[in-house]
Amino acid sequence: QKLSGDEIRRKFLEFYRKRGHQIVTSASLIPEDPTVLLTIAGMLTFKPIFLGQRIPEFPRAASSQKCIRTNDIENVGRTKRHHTFFEMLGNFSFGDYFKEQAISWGWEVSTELFGLPKERLIISVFDLDEETYAIWRDKIGVPEKRIKRMGINDNFWNSGVTGPCGPCSEIYYDFHPELGDDIDLEDDSRFIEFYNLVFMESNRDANGNLTPLASKNIDTGMGLERMAQILQQVPNNYETDLILPIIKKVGDIARADYSKSDEKTKISLKIISDHMRAIVHMIADHIYASNVGRGYVLRRLIRRVVRHGRLIGIDEEFTTKLAENVIILGESAYPHLRERESAIKTELQQEESCFLKTLARGEKILAGVINKLKHQDKTIISGDEIFKLYDTYGFPKELTQEIAEEEGLTIDSDGFTIEMQKQIKRAQSSHKTIDLTVKHPLDNKSSDHIHSTEFLGYTQTVTSVRV
Ligand code: ATP
Ligand code: MG
Ligand code: MG
Ligand code: MG
Predict the structure, then answer these.
(1) What is the pLDDT of residues 56-69, one digit of tens each?
(2) Is the pTM of this model over 0.90?
(3) Which of 62, 116, 289, 338 is the most interior residue, by most CB within 10 Å?
(4) Do 247 and 221 have their domain in common?
(5) Atom of ligand 1 nearest to the CA of 168
(6) Co-location of 187 and 248 in the same domain
(7) ipTM score for this prediction
(8) What is the three-class DSSP state of 441?
(9) Which residues pair with 167 in a beta bridge?
């Protein structure tokens, strides 16, 4: 009897609720914190408390927080464990319980609540944090060979240059214990990090000195999709019940059977499914496609979905059909998805059809460019041409490359980069852009329809966002 994603979420929250934690519903993907574009972790909601700017209403909390990490976009579909959109389960202590309690509950959740075999768990600790090492070894009884010391880059958390900080300790699952005691946690074909415990115990001052915090905090994060992968015994996060139904739906539309597909098709199916989850949740949280900030992240995700759809042979509009699947899968945990159904579908329809027109126009222009080159017996599409297609017509460079390859041509990527850099310089000197299209969740819902649909080019934004 394998646990579903919904059951894992429910059991985790129930465990901590019974231990005095206030259950806090997921915050919006639009963070209150102005220093980040999107909600990237469960702790963000509580950051003002950790920074001492807000007094907590309760000493302990637990949540299942929807997150988006664009820094993982290149990993999507390629690693077994990374998404742009995922849910982070977390338990938090605000000056209340600390290390020993957090570790013993983390262990109990892993080994008893979710029943993971103890001998399959590996622990990482910060190498100077002897206290944590000793708790794992002496109180929990983890053998030394399965406690790994890691450096400051991996296992020390900072909120900024100054402020609260502290070591962390992670729990990894071993898929192949038969491979023995030679443990390299970087080997992701064997190990997966699923639970991170942060011990916020120091304050760093402007001179870099650490002093103990009067009020020590706990911040943790467990990837729901990762725990589902482990418990459902599937080869990657994508094949869990949280995502596989979307993959199947995409497969139906593309007439491709996921399990029988080649690696490239599988990657496209995974990317489309991952991005659709992100897209639907973003629009549900009142983010609309635009050329800056969050809106630009959304636009790029939608365009990647359409592009990968074409790569696997989908030439019709399909994103609203997938949105329906995402809503069905998510609505029991996130009822507002259904309330936002029409806004989600309208936005998708507009963006998709607009981008399809862009693509059709770009393909026509590119065909002309290729024809001319062939007549001149040339084989390289210049950086200038690629840039013009990209900048003026919104036609992605990768697509130019792909079509060029089909025609037996190559593209001048370096030339394109040079043109891009010139453009960035021009944009920096002449623009200051403000995102007016991204609305706050508190905004009046009746104004949902007002948003930019006009394509203005990518240019102003490449400097400010990386997706
Ligand atoms: P990794 O090293 O695997 O990239 P991380 O150390 O960046 O993970 P944390 O910042 O510690 O992750 O986040 C806490 C937990 O959230 C992780 O232990 C993992 O379970 C989950 N998580 C982090 N990033 C992702 C992602 N891109 N997709 C799915 N789950 C994630
Ligand atoms: Mg990471
Ligand atoms: Mg990590
Ligand atoms: Mg981590």
Answers:
(1) 999 999 999 999 99
(2) no
(3) 289
(4) no
(5) 11
(6) no
(7) 0.99
(8) coil
(9) 156
